[in-house]
Amino acid sequence: MSQNDAFRALDRQECLRLLAKAPVGRVVYTRQALPAVLPINFCLDTDLSVLLRTSPDSDLIRAIDGVVVAFEADEFDATTQSGWSVVVTGRATVVTDPAEHERLSHSGPTSWMPLRDAVLVRIEAGIVTGRELKGTHGAR
């Protein structure tokens, strides 16, 4: 297998299909003028935006509301040296509409951490990129 055969770019539709099956991703944002990365549970909404659920006391809320962020999720198998990675770049906004918040409270992401009065954040899927690495184990 050549190096070019081992790697391929994914189209937007395939990226979103893969993203929909990942339970955890990482939001990439700026905190005190430095890059920050936070693993978080998420899901995709019907409009294919990324939805996050977090604590109202979270520093994340203050850092990302109204700001362009990146969100990345992936799946890799070290044994076969294969997997995929998807990055969504877009504006993050706190969901403030009461009806929308109510809808997403039932259908949106769950959190592995217990949260009271959770805040929901939407990341628009402005730019969606991805790549797949096919197994190269033993192909030297």
Distance between the termini: 8 Å
Helix amount, in percent? 10-25%
Strand percent estimate:
over 45%
CA radius of gyration is 17 Å
Q: Which structural class fits the helix and strand makeup?
A: alpha+beta
Mean pLDDT: 87
Q: What order do the helices and strands follow?
A: HEHEEEHEEHEE
Largest sheet, spatial ordering of strands = 2-3-4-7-6-5
How large is the count of helical segments? 4
What's the main sheet like? 6 strands, antiparallel, barrel
Could you give the count of β-strands?
8
Model regions low in confidence, pLDDT < 50 over at least 5 residues: none
What would your notes on this structure say?
Pfam families: Pyridox_ox_2. InterPro entries: Pyridox_Oxase-rel, Split_barrel_FMN-bd. This is Pyridoxamine 5'-phosphate oxidase family protein. The termini are close together. With 140 residues, the protein is of the alpha+beta class. It contains four helices and eight strands; from the N terminus they run H-E-H-E-E-E-H-E-E-H-E-E. Strand 2 and strand 3 form a beta hairpin. The chain is globular.
SSE diagram, text form:
Layout: H1 3-6, E1 7-10, H2 12-19, E2 24-31, E3 34-44, E4 50-54, H3 59-64, E5 67-77, E6 82-94, H4 98-107, E7 119-123, E8 127-133
Antiparallel strand pairs: 1-8, 2-3, 2-5, 3-4, 4-7, 5-6, 6-7, 6-8
